[in-house]
Amino acid sequence: MSSLIINTLWSCNVFLNGVDLLGRAAEIEIPHPRRITKDYKGLGMAMAIKIPTGWEALEATQKWQSYDASTIRSLCDSSSMTSLSAMGNLQTLSSAGEVSETPVIYNLTGIISDAGKVGFKAQENVEYTSTMDVWHSELYIGGVEIFMIDAASNQFIVGGVDQLSAFRTNQGG
Length: 173
Known about the structure:
By secondary structure, the protein is mostly beta strands. The chain has helices at residues 69-76, 165-170, and strands spanning 5-16, 19-20, 25-29, 35-40, 49-55, 58-64, 82-94, 97-114, 128-141, 144-150, 155-158, 161-162.
């Protein structure tokens, strides 16, 4: 008989360039690596297949509900790379109750491509959404690196295995 194990990750704290922004973000969307594929069909094949040809550009979005000068200044600074971290608590539950709590950390580095638009509504808090073009992304669960992808160095490491090692070697890198 199998036992029920549920892992839930339902909130996080956001850090922008190392500054703790507790409660300032309403929502954050963090991308995971996604393959680019092309259709391939050849004579004698009954069905077309998709073959991998690279990786899509990564983009993260942040919805802000706190209107503060330091966050807006960081989002509008286009002269340097921006670092964004989301730190959460992974709760593991079983039929016996809570089993464990484990840290989950996403680290992103990239360029803010859109600092967002501010819209005003009567008697409502101002919210705005910013967009980051991600060049580097890492995910750690319980201190263990799950993946790291870096566009500038052609690296994609999953579970400690460099997925692009042969690709770099074959291209002289």
